[in-house]
From TrEMBL:
Pfam families: GSH_synth_ATP, GSH_synthase. Residues 205-302 form the Glutathione synthase substrate-binding domain. One of its GO terms (cellular component) is cytosol. It catalyses: gamma-L-glutamyl-L-cysteine + glycine + ATP = glutathione + ADP + phosphate + H(+). Its cofactor is Mg(2+). ATP binds at residues 144, 305, 364-373, 375, 398-401, 425, 452, 458. One of its GO terms (molecular function) is glutathione synthase activity. Substrate binds at residues 125, 148-151, 214-216, 220, 267-270, 450, 461-462. The gene is GSS. Binds 1 Mg(2+) ion per subunit. This is Glutathione synthetase. The lineage of its organism: Eukaryota, Metazoa, Chordata, Craniata, Vertebrata. Homodimer.
Length: 474
């Protein structure tokens, strides 16, 4: 398998000129971020970092990732409806992880009161890396599934034009035509639209829960624009605004500034630092309402690393998706090794193995947003510290995936154009809508390829480590 663009990467001067053209095209296409200096304002913006060339991805793996997405949608939805499974799975974690415990408390409160919401909307992104099987064939291995704030569906629809441009400049028109079109933001908006319609109130709004400082606003705007084109109005509010101006009526309909809300779309609320006591109150208010939450609290919990690890245990997929052996087989084929660190023999053994062979494992806490996992010597130190404490149950261990590195240029504002060794991570966006017990929409709606230099073990685009890319199918 060829891994790259070969001699094209050797012409330093040509790369610089190409990069200038690529950056200008990216700006023209709207591949934008606000700057870290002015994250609240769109007065000054720059391009979102991206690769100069699309990165080679085996077509078979792309197809496999697309084909399994509807299965993952169903699985997440099944987990979110299975209160007993969530409770059992998270019982040891919530004793030691305050954030998960807080989410779980809200989940319990809503269950006790009775769930007012009747329409459910999932917008998720399942992420994968590629690695070789023992026989040399390439394999797709899931890193995680994001069930809240899965981002970059908007910017990912604008990057194909940039890579086609680069290849056209090089007179590689046939290659340019191979770059797949991609429009996740449209698909995500169609899911929100369906949920909004089923909610059934012509004047109700979509409430986007936004952060005060949001560099990635253009990604979100892409979805807002699609909704407005369908005559669905979006308001952006912070948790603080909800706690000041949000209310429920006696039927638990949600009102914001006096206007009814049909769908709440979270682009905030996935990290502990995003919650003050006031924000937790606001989250509870939203969860208690009959508005469609994307995601509802149970679906957020279904996306925890602990749930991911338990799903890989023998018999669990079969229990959650009874009578669907083919679905189960497709899902399981993408699972890497996942190990519980709950107190007991199984956890003891996993810890012992990771301490002996640290390069084979990743230690993960129940966190989202990148930069939280531990690798190598740091992981060993953490395991030594944790191994006799119940705190270890708030982590899981995962087999480390080892993709084959390839050369590409990572273009970032203010950084020199140079070829570095990289690895990629593929994400597939999934959308589903359920009304009561009936799944009325289940789709994949596009992809995201992110690429980073091999020296960074962790982190995505928002964390400043990975950059936007496109798969070049081979
Ligand atoms: P987060 O929720 O913080 O995004 P992830 O599980 O996606 O957590 O991990 C963050 C990053 O760490 C991933 O984007 C990937 O680059 C790297 N990573 C995570 N799990 C593995 C793994 N099993 N093998 C290799 N790299 C991994
Ligand atoms: Mg991730």
């Amino acid at each position: 398998m060829a891994t790259g663009w070969g001699s094209l990467l050797q012409e330093e001067q040509q790369l610089e000129e190409l990069a200038r053209q690529a950056v200008d095209r990216a700006l023209a296409e709207g591949v934008l971020l606000r700057t870290s200096q002015e994250p609240r304002s769109s007065d000054v913006v720059s391009y979102a970092p991206f690769t100069l060339f699309p990165s080679l991805v085996p077509s078979a793996l792309l197809e496999q990732a697309y084909a399994v997405q509807m299965d993952f949608n169903m699985l997440v939805d099944a987990v979110s409806q299975n209160a007993a499974f969530l409770e059992q799975t998270l019982s040891s974690t919530i004793k030691r992880d305050n954030f998960t415990a807080h989410l779980f408390d809200i989940h319990k409160q809503v269950l006790k009161e009775g769930i007012a919401q009747t329409v459910f909307l999932g917008l998720n992104r399942s992420d994968y890396m590629f690695q070789r099987n023992a026989d040399g064939s390439p394999a797709l291995k899931q890193i995680e599934i994001n069930t809240i704030s899965a981002s970059f569906g908007g910017l990912a629809s604008r990057t194909p034009a940039v890579h086609r441009h680069v290849l056209n400049v090089l007179n590689k028109t046939k290659e340019a035509a191979k770059i797949l079109s991609n429009n996740p933001s449209k698909g995500l908006a169609l899911g929100i639209t369906r949920a909004w319609e089923l909610y059934g109130s012509a004047n109700a709004l979509v409430l986007l829960i936004a952060q005060e400082k949001e560099r990635n606003i253009f990604d979100q705007r892409a979805i807002e624009n699609e909704l407005l084109a369908r005559n669905i109005h979006v308001i952006r509010r912070r948790f603080e605004d909800v706690s000041e101006k949000g209310s429920l009526d006696q039927d638990r309909r949600l009102f914001m500034d006096g206007q009814e809300v049909a769908v709440v779309y979270f682009r905030d609320g996935y990290m502990p630092s995003q919650y003050s006591p006031q924000n937790w109150e606001a989250r509870l208010l939203l969860e208690r309402s009959c508005a469609v939450k994307c995601p509802d609290i149970a679906t957020q919990l279904a996306g925890t690393k602990k749930v991911q690890q338990e799903l890989s245990r023998m018999g669990v997929l079969e229990m959650l998706l009874p009578g669907q052996p083919e679905t189960v087989a497709r899902l399981r084929a993408t699972f890497a090794g996942l190990y519980s660190l709950d107190m007991g023999e199984e956890g003891d053994q996993a810890i012992a193995e990771a301490i002996v062979a640290p390069s084979q494992f990743v230690l993960k806490p129940q966190r989202e947003g990148g930069g939280n996992n531990l690798y190598g010597e740091e992981m060993v130190q953490a395991l030594e510290r944790l191994k006799d404490s119940e705190e270890r149950a708030s982590y899981i261990l995962m087999e480390k995936i080892k993709p084959e590195p390839f050369g590409n240029c990572l273009l970032r504002p203010g950084s020199p154009v140079q070829v570095v060794q990289c690895i990629s991570e593929l994400g597939i966006f999934g959308v589903y809508v359920r009304q009561g017990k009936t799944l009325v929409m289940n789709k994949h709606v596009g992809h995201l390829l992110r690429t980073k230099a091999i020296e960074h073990a962790d982190g995505g685009v928002a964390a400043g480590v990975a950059v936007l890319d496109n798969p070049y199918p081979v």
